[in-house]
UniProtKB/TrEMBL annotation:
Pfam families: EF_TS. It is found in: Cytoplasm. Residues 82-85 are annotated as: Involved in Mg(2+) ion dislocation from EF-Tu. This is Elongation factor Ts. Residues 73-274 form the Translation elongation factor EFTs/EF1B dimerisation domain.
Amino acid sequence: MAQITAAIVKELRERTGAGMMDCKKALVATEGDMEKAIDFLREKGLSQAAKKAGRVAAEGAVVAYVAEDGKTGAIVEVNCETDFVGKNENFQALAKSIAELIVKTNPADVDTLLASELDGKAVKDVVTEAIAKIGENISVRRFVRYESAEGLVYSYIHGGGKIGVLVDMKGGDAELGKDVAMQVAAANPQFLNRNEVPASELEHEKEILTEQARNEGKPENIIAKMVIGRINKYYKEVCLVDQEFIRDGDLTISKLLKSKNADVARFARFQLGEGIEKKKENFAEEVAAFVNK
């Protein structure tokens, strides 16, 4: 049986948020085994971190890290429950350290990342400790890592972490890299160019546009021409290189890149909390339900 010292009890408390006496009892019951003690507390419902882990986390931050040589970069979305905690210095530091770890270790997926070592501990354990310390559920949701084959990686974070962008670009310079990343953040293109638009999605769009033209009472012999024109407008909305440059409407991104002898290989854009269903609180219903019990 491992010796149960005050330091071990303190570590268990930091990792779980449980009371000191509960932590000591858990360690005694598990003969000083830290991981088994954590499970013991969770099973007994005494781990505050475990309780918080079930709550919806749709706030937080998207953060970026680019290596000093500019060849490798990553963006990661780390979620918490409130915007207040998302702006917390400790939370931001945790998210940035995870982004840096992604660049350095190239994990295959989130599960691999959570099992990776950060400051001598598994990332999942570091996150659990942060949950206990900060008092909210925290989760690492997703990440993208680019290692540029021929160019450099550029990042842009908007609104303190509300939107994060990563761009892999050959040629140009840092100013252009930032401009392109800002374009992606502002205009939200879905694809790099027309070749990336799936045929099924394009056909679906054509069907909608054809019906729109018919509903407008347009004759069949000109509907096809109208659809071609509207499809070109659709490309300008969803394809990065076809979009108008946000800083100069007379330039498309394609022309901007050409003028700088540059080419974008790929890009990624994360918007904080997109796709996460947030729980809607109705306090009137909550009070009524309590009274009726």
